[in-house]
Amino acid sequence: MARQNSIFRRFAHFFAFGFGAGKAPFAPGTFGTVVAVPIYLLMRETPLAAYAFVVVAMFGFGVWCCGVTERDFGKKDMSSIVWDEIVGYLVTMFMAPAGWEFVVAGFVLFRVFDIWKPFPIRALERRTPGGWGVMLDDVLAGLYAWCGVQAFALLRI
Fold this sequence. Notes:
By secondary structure, the chain is mainly alpha-helical.
């Protein structure tokens, strides 16, 4: 049983670390967001309901795998956990118009809000334990960035 448990833990860590992107020697959150870009590009043509379903499923999976990883390493929301950045970027890009400028704008806006953590993101991050805390602050940063991408789209029309 311990062996099987160990396999599941390594599986959780692999995803929580964004397939290895979180082990980057600097700016792991940015590298995690880079991993999200091709995932978004593969998903962008899917129907909105399917896109939303996948993102919600990835969020739920992230609560689990990030929580396991945080517990195993004994650090709250450690910087090498980047699954939350992947999901946050996918939230940012929900219903984004096609075009490289929106991919870049979403990337920049998400990173700005993820790093800055305007109210209530920082408070939410501090008060919410485990995998929920790891995931929720990035989803909220993604929602802020989503507003920016949608505003950018409206201004470009």
